[in-house]
Amino acid sequence: MTALSTVGWAFADTWTITRRDLNHWALRPGTVAIGWIFPVMIALMFGGLFGGAIEVPGGGGYFDFLMPGMFAMTVFFGLENTMMAVTTDAAKGVTDRFRSMPMSSLAVVAGRCVADMLNSVVGLAVMVGAGLALGWRWHEGPGPALAAFGLLLLLRFALLWVGILAGLAAGGPESVTAVQILVWPVGFLSNVFVDPATMPFWLGAIAEWNPLSVTAAAVRDLFGTPGFEAGSWITLNAIPMAVAWPLLLVAVFLPLSVRKYRHLSRT
C-alpha cells in the first residue's frame, strides 16, 4: 500500500468515526442542546447577579466585558463532554472493537476530535447570538473578530486532546467525576469574571497565566471590548501567547493521546 493510499484510508476512517459520533448526537438532541444552553445560563447568572457590583474598565456594561471571557469558557466547558464520551466508549468495549478492525490507529481519536470541533462551532455560535442579544458587540471590524474566533477554536482544539487523554486514562465513567471537579476551579481561576489583581498576588499570577485567561484577554483585545489593564508580561503579550499555549498543549497531549490509544489494552 502506498503512502498516499494510507493517508486516504486514514481520512476515510476518521470521517466514519466522525459520522458515528454525529449520529449519536442526533439521537439525543436534548442533551446536546443543554450543552449549548448551559454557558448562556452561566453568563446570565453572573451578568445579572454580580455585574452591577463589578466596575468595568473604562466604563460600559458588564456584559460587554463578560461575553468574550464566556466565549473562552464555552470552549473550555467542552472538555468535560469529550472526556465523558471517550471514557464511555472505552468502558463499553467500543474502543477495543475499533482497535480490532483494520483501520488507522489515529482515526478513533481524530474522529472524536472532528465531531467535537463541529459541536463546539455550533455552541460558540449560540453563545455569540446570546451575547449580541444582551448588547455585546465587537468594535474592531470583521478581520480582528475572525482572528478572535480563530483563537477560541484553537484553544478548543488543544483542549480536545487533553480531554481525549483524560478520557482514555480514566478507569470508567465514574472516574470522570473526579476529573470534572478540577475543571471548574481551573475555569473560574481566570480573568473571565473578575480582575486577577483583586486576588491574592500568588493566586492572581496563576490566574493570569491560565490559558483560559490568556485567550480571554486576547479576544477582548481583538474585539475591542473592555479588559483589565494589567501590566504583567503575560497580559501585554496575550495574543501571541493565545497561540503559543494551545500549540504547546497540542504538542504534548496529541502524541500522548495516540500512544495511550495504541496501548490501551496493555494498561
Automatic annotation (TrEMBL):
It comes from the Bacteria. Keywords: Antibiotic resistance, Cell membrane, Membrane, Transmembrane, Transmembrane helix, Transport. Residues 30-264 form the ABC transmembrane type-2 domain. It is a multi-pass membrane protein. Its main location: membrane. Belongs to the ABC-2 integral membrane protein family. The keyword Transcription regulation does not apply. The keyword Methyltransferase does not apply. This is Transport permease protein. The chain crosses the membrane at residues 33-54, 109-134, 146-170, 176-194, 239-258. It is found in: Cell membrane; Membrane.
